[in-house]
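[step 3/7] fold_predict: job queued, chain A
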Amino acid sequence: MIGGNAFTWFNQLVEVGLGIVALALFAAERKQREYLWIFLFFLVGALGIPLTIYRLFHNVSAQWEYLRAPLQIIGLILLVLFFFAFLRIRLGVWMKAILG
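[step 4/7] structure written:
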């Protein structure tokens, strides 16, 4: 079990670390919104870690997987916001409607 999941656990640990670094960068540079969006993206990803760990050791009904879907949708929206902030592109009315 450890060998098969070690890379996934390492990846999640690195993502949490990068989220903390992004939060520290945003605290130092409030005008750089991309740090905020990448922190929130990693935070949403970290919210799914307990379910992932619990699922490794227990049988989980399919209904619990429905908790992961909104997190993935929110994560995708935050990732799009990060890219727009990083490229310094303003969100137009149509893009806000599509994201909504």
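[step 5/7] annotate
The radius of gyration is 16 Å.
The mean pLDDT is 85.
exit 0
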